[in-house]
Write a structure and sequence with these properties.
Length: 192
C-alpha cells in the first residue's frame, strides 16, 4: 500500500468542521486522503486513496471516547487485517508527547517520542514557540530507529514529514507509520 521511504502529511489548521489530511509521496503525488468528521465522541478516522473517498485503505479507530491515553486500532480496510495499534501515553505526554507502537496482538514493540523534554516544555509554555521550534518525533522498534516525523512550521497548514530509516523495512508496517503521522496531525494538532 505504501512503498516510499518518505511522505508529507498536510492538514489545514483553519477549517470549519473536521479535518482533512493529504498524504503525498516523495514525488508530491497524493498517496492517501483523510477526512475526519467533526463532533464525533469517539475518533473513527478513515483513510482513502484519493479525495473522492471511493477506495478506503485503512481505518483508525479509538477504543475509548476520551483520548487522553486512548489506543487507536489500525485496520487495513480491504482485508480487515489489523496492522497494529498506537496508544498515546497520557501522563507522560503532558511534558513530552509519547506514543506506544503495538503489534496486532497489542504487544508493545516500539514507541514514538517527541524530540526533547526541554523543547517540549518551551513549546507548551511559550505562545508561538512552535514557530521557531517545530516538533520532531523519533520512532523506534525495540532499540532501532525506524522513522522520524518532523513538523515544518506554517501558520495555516500543519505539515509533518515522515522519513523511514533504512532499517525500517520489514520492522514496521508502512500503513501503521502513516497512521501514526495522521494521529500526530489530528490528535496532537488539537493541542496547538
Amino acid at each position: 500500500m505504501f512503498e516510499y521511504s518518505g511522505y508529507q502529511l498536510r492538514r489545514k489548521v483553519l477549517t470549519f468542521a473536521g479535518a482533512k489530511v493529504h498524504v503525498t509521496d516523495e514525488q508530491g503525488v497524493l498517496a492517501a486522503f483523510v477526512h475526519v468528521k467533526a463532533f464525533k465522541l469517539k475518533e473513527d478516522i478513515r483513510v482513502y486513496r484519493d479525495e473522492q473517498r471511493a477506495d478506503e485503505l485503512m481505518q483508525i479507530k479509538a477504543r475509548k471516547i476520551i483520548d487522553f491515553s486512548s489506543a487507536y486500532d489500525v485496520v487495513e480496510s480491504a482485508s480487515g487485517r489489523k496492522l497494529g495499534a498506537l496508544r498515546r501515553r497520557g501522563l507522560k505526554s503532558i511534558m513530552r508527547d509519547e506514543w506506544q507502537i503495538l503489534d496486532a496482538q497489542d504487544n508493545e514493540v516500539g514507541k514514538i517520542v517527541e524530540d526533547s523534554t526541554a523543547l517540549a516544555l518551551i513549546r507548551r509554555a511559550v505562545d508561538f514557540a512552535a514557530m521557531i521550534l517545530p516538533q520532531k518525533y523519533r520512532g523506534t522498534i525495540g532499540d532501532d530507529h525506524v522513522m522520524t516525523f518532523k513538523q515544518n512550521f506554517n501558520p495555516f497548514v500543519m505539515k509533518i514529514g515522515l522519513d523511514f530509516a533504512p532499517e525500517a523495512k520489514g520492522r514496521i508496517e508502512p500503513g501503521l507509520a502513516i497512521a501514526a503521522g495522521i494521529l500526530l496531525c489530528v490528535i496532537e494538532g488539537k493541542q496547538n
